Amino acid sequence: MLATIVACILLAFVMGSLARMLRLPALIGYIAAGMLIGPYLPGAVAERGMVSAMAEIGVALLLFSIGLHFRAADLLAVWRVAVPGAVAQIALAGLAGALVGQALLGLAPGISFAFGLALAISSTAVATKALEERGKLGGAAGRLALGWLVMQDLVVVFALVLLPALAGGAGGGPGGGPGGGATAMLLGLGKAALSLVAFVLLMVLVGRRALPWALTRVARGGSRELFTLAVLAAALGVAAIASSLFGVSFALGAFFAGVLLGESDLGHQAAAEATPLTRIFSAIFFVSVGLLLDFSQVGGTPLAALAATLSVILAIGGSVLALLLLLGVPARTALLVAAGLSQIGEFSFLLTEVSIRQGLLPELVRGPVLMAAIGSIIATPLLLKAADALAPAFERWLAARAARRPAATLRQAPPPVPWPLLEGHAIVVGAGRVGATVIGALRRHHLPLIVMEEDRAIAERLTAEGIPTIWGDATRPEVLAAAHPERARILILALPGALEGREVLRLARQANPAIQTVVRSHSETEAAWLEAEGGVGLVMMGEREIALGMADFAMQRLGIAASTAQATVDVLRRRHMPGVAG
């Protein structure tokens, strides 16, 4: 176990770094790492079952993190496109895959659709990771892709019930013929539908209140370690319940847990706590893909492997693009979604193994499915890059050829927030004695502000007073992003820690280089460093400000005009004053 974990993490880092040096996506390096420690190349052999289990956790945590940023309103906004589109895409891509199975693998027409179905379900982990790396996951393309992937996951749930029923019908199993197989199939589908409905109702009626309530109690205790454990317990616990009791996929259960927590004010900090583990385990998922690559299986059916790979990229990508354009989605969004979904992964492996165990498909289909998965996964980042580059020309081409007809556009409603969308606002980080004074001054003049506070009790009190407040650690990108620094005018850092202040300042400048800043400092050295940084509007150090305040008062009482006294204070504030600190 120890050797497997160390090998996965170490080689993922080495090969991922090498891939980035070659200007390739890191996931290609992760797949190569899996090939190096897999059983099909000489050298160290990893424990495949253990890596697969870690990979499943990685996919679940990735879906949980996505769910934290996803709102039910976002899903409903794209539902009219995602539901019919995903169903039609699975049918079209499944038919293309079935034709490949019939023509090159000699599969019977009926069971070849099981092979086609494995080539029609996109990888949720790959699609979301690739869109996130290009900054597209939070936009219209990301919301639509997520809705599409959720619909595909639901189809997989029913497919896992359908395949054993098909096998029973094909073999004249229970029921004594096709009629018995059809009856078993209908019973299985009905049971799956009821289980899914029961799980959703349980989450909406119980989980929607219970999960935020439990995590709020943990947060009030003030222990970051316990809160991190509570977040992971919520994600993996709900996923396990969904899988074991309701037959819903492990990853989809974690996604629902994330959506429910994301509706509360705990979502931003929960995302920050889950992100490091999500990145590690999602990298292990790609390592697990490399572990599966058996060159002997691929070499036995090279033409089928190549055709399956092309079928995935062209049939999924082409059908998604055509369906989205038909449903009125803007061309650029349609291109990005099509490129992001043009691959297969974890669910395809699952469907293939179930079909082989049930006797529907021969073992020789493993090679083409594996090759199609690895080839399309490697191609996905390149396809997204190409989609970005080709989008302007594609839009011009469509505009030139399109008839004059109204085009429906995808609603891009922002996630709901408990306060109006702010523009040109102040972000106050820290609501202690210093921050509370600043907040009071801004509120006195009805100026727009968002407060960020790590103490749960203070955050709840400010929220109760009607002050827009985000609870969480502002040094985490996911938490700071909730305050929309890209639209803010000024950042006021009232944090007691110098390192935390530096990190928040760095993140805010990444989002908005023009943001003005006021920073609290506790030492002359720290103040000097901050003042040397370009763009820091004002650095406030306690002892120095006391001295300057006393000097300002004295000058004015001795007859110096207020404006002249303030000018002197400004000059002294900018000057290095070691004597004051002493």
Automatic annotation (TrEMBL):
Q: What is its main location?
A: membrane
Quote the subcellular location field of this record: Membrane
| Keyword match Transport | yes
| UniProt-listed Pfam families | Na_H_Exchanger (PF00999), TrkA_N (PF02254)
Task: Report TM segments.
Answer: 49-70, 82-105, 111-132, 144-166, 186-206, 226-257, 277-296, 303-327
Q: How does it sit in the membrane?
A: Multi-pass membrane protein
Alphabetically list the UniProt keywords: Membrane, Transmembrane, Transmembrane helix, Transport
Q: Where is the RCK N-terminal domain?
A: 423-540
Give the domain of life: Bacteria
- Give the family this protein belongs to, as stated in its UniProt record: Belongs to the monovalent cation:proton antiporter 2 (CPA2) transporter (TC 2.A.37) family.
Protein's UniProt name: Cation:proton antiporter
Instruction: Provide the species name.
Output: Falsiroseomonas tokyonensis
